[in-house]
TrEMBL record:
<keyword id="KW-0055">Arginine biosynthesis</keyword>
<dbReference type="InterPro" id="IPR000534">
    <property type="entry name" value="Semialdehyde_DH_NAD-bd"/>
</dbReference>
<dbReference type="InterPro" id="IPR058924">
    <property type="entry name" value="AGPR_dimerisation_dom"/>
</dbReference>
<keyword id="KW-0963">Cytoplasm</keyword>
<comment type="pathway">
    <text>Amino-acid biosynthesis; L-arginine biosynthesis; N(2)-acetyl-L-ornithine from L-glutamate: step 3/4.</text>
</comment>
<dbReference type="GO" id="GO:0005737">
    <property type="term" value="C:cytoplasm"/>
</dbReference>
<keyword id="KW-0560">Oxidoreductase</keyword>
<keyword id="KW-0521">NADP</keyword>
<dbReference type="GO" id="GO:0003942">
    <property type="term" value="F:N-acetyl-gamma-glutamyl-phosphate reductase activity"/>
</dbReference>
<dbReference type="GO" id="GO:0051287">
    <property type="term" value="F:NAD binding"/>
</dbReference>
<dbReference type="InterPro" id="IPR036291">
    <property type="entry name" value="NAD(P)-bd_dom_sf"/>
</dbReference>
<dbReference type="GO" id="GO:0070401">
    <property type="term" value="F:NADP+ binding"/>
</dbReference>
<feature type="domain" description="Semialdehyde dehydrogenase NAD-binding">
    <location>
        <begin position="5"/>
        <end position="145"/>
    </location>
</feature>
<dbReference type="Pfam" id="PF01118">
    <property type="entry name" value="Semialdhyde_dh"/>
</dbReference>
<comment type="function">
    <text>Catalyzes the NADPH-dependent reduction of N-acetyl-5-glutamyl phosphate to yield N-acetyl-L-glutamate 5-semialdehyde.</text>
</comment>
<dbReference type="Pfam" id="PF22698">
    <property type="entry name" value="Semialdhyde_dhC_1"/>
</dbReference>
<keyword id="KW-0028">Amino-acid biosynthesis</keyword>
Length: 339
């Protein structure tokens, strides 16, 4: 089969690097273009030395006419939110399918976007068409999507960790606590004071308590599953590791259940989902490093359900699930290049 020509936008960043490492293993993909604001069209290996000898593509400014002329069929947007909705409509208008790794197209209600992101949404037309790309929940909508809103890194741990309980209406839909810890690469490659080495090394800190923009994303998906509003208290923490997210979730059962009934709910919900691993011991971030797996452990403790979820923020949290979506969009086995 002729490989599918793809473009990656925002080539200097961490998710672009992760995506390149995965796509270079994909038998049916050709990296046609890597776009960047960098001056002088550098080789990708000059910006990401781990790609030296593996990928000989020059970075180039974004030029949609050129991408169309070269037959690009899918573009991965690895840009910050805001920059995504400023660029991606140009590609979509020309028939290129897009997987957007930013948050711009994840929240269906533009008023909710404005409330949590502090800016109004500028592309209501494509927002209305976007499919939320969490394959385990919205998998049937992905093959025909022109625009995939790739899910956020933290939200995937909260949504997947709670999905079996919410779908079974087995827990209270308020007072759910999601306590998450992320490695520093979650903040991207662009330097910031909080992620400067002396600021974050040997230290753990909570941030954006009660106002992190992933709260409405988690609630939107869980509300879809429940058919009624679900409310969460989501608290992220920055931890001194390169990559990985560990979320510990606390929920209150609506009715009493045994450990076996609880485990059965999870087994049934995630049956046939190749990237969910139900664990008999609490997972660690190292167990999922560089993989597309989401590891989930669940236990009853003093009348509460405690769920521990581990994922790699760059692989499963961003670029791995983007390739999982790509595989579904273009009719490949969803595990291609990921297992
Ligand atoms: N890091 C993570 O774990 C996750 C990230 N995401 C999301 O994925 C997207 C990319 O994240 P990540 O790779 O970590 O971010 P980075 O900051 O590492 O990279 C983003 C890249 O986008 C380009 N860029 C930056 N600002 C602009 C701008 N104003 N206009 C156009 N291009 C710009 C730059 O590339 P260049 O200089 O080459 O132009 C930059 O390197 C973000 O929206 C992020 O929120 C989602 C899930 C997890
Ligand atoms: C550790 C860290 O700073 N993490 C980022 C979230 C990661 C991310 O990329 O989220 P979006 O895809 O929704 O932009 C944060 O809390 O803002």
């Amino acid at each position: 089969m002729t490989p599918i020509p793809v473009a990656i936008l925002g080539g200097s960043g961490y998710t672009a690097l992760e995506l390149l490492h995965i796509l270079l293993r994909h038998p049916s993909v050709r990296i046609e273009a890597i776009t960047s604001r960098q001056e002088g069209t550098p080789w990708i290996g000059e910006v990401h030395p781990s790609l030296l000898g593996r990928c000989s593509v020059r970075m180039e400014p974004l030029n949609v006419d050129s991408l169309v002329a070269r037959g690009v069929r899918c573009a991965f947007g690895c840009l910050p939110h805001g920059a995504s909705m400023a660029s991606l409509p140009m590609l979509l208008n020309r028939g290129i399918r897009v997987i957007d790794l930013s948050a711009d197209y994840r929240l269906r209600d533009p008023n909710v976007y404005a409330q949590w992101y502090g800016e109004s949404h500028e592309d209501l037309a494509y927002l209305a068409q976007a499919v939320y790309g969490l394959p385990e929940l919205y998998g049937d909508e992905i093959p025909n999507a022109q625009l995939i809103a790739n899910p956020g890194c933290y939200p995937q741990t909260g949504i997947l960790g709670l999905a079996p309980l919410v779908a079974a209406r087995a827990i209270e839909f308020t007072g759910i606590i999601i306590d998450s810890k992320s490695g520093v690469s979650g903040a991207g490659r662009t330097p910031k004071l909080t992620t400067h080495y002396p600021e974050c090394n040997e230290s753990i800190s909570a941030y954006n308590i009660g106002k992190h923009r992933h709260t409405p994303e988690i609630e939107q998906a869980l509300t879809d599953l429940a058919g009624e509003p679900v409310e969460v208290i989501f608290t992220p923490h920055l931890t001194p590791m390169d990559r990985g997210i560990l979320s510990t979730i606390y929920a209150t059962p609506k009715r009493s259940m045994t450990a076996e009934q609880l485990a059965g709910l999870y087994r049934e919900f995630f049956a046939k989902m190749p990237f969910i691993r139900l664990r008999s011991t609490p997972p660690a971030t190292k167990d999922v490093m560089h993989s597309n797996f989401v590891d989930i452990y669940v236990q009853l403790v003093r009348g509460k359900v405690v769920i521990v979820v581990a994922e790699d923020n760059l692989t499963r949290g961003a670029s791995g699930v983007a390739v999982q979506n790509f595989n579904r969009m273009f009719g490949f086995d969803e595990r291609t290049a990921l297992l």
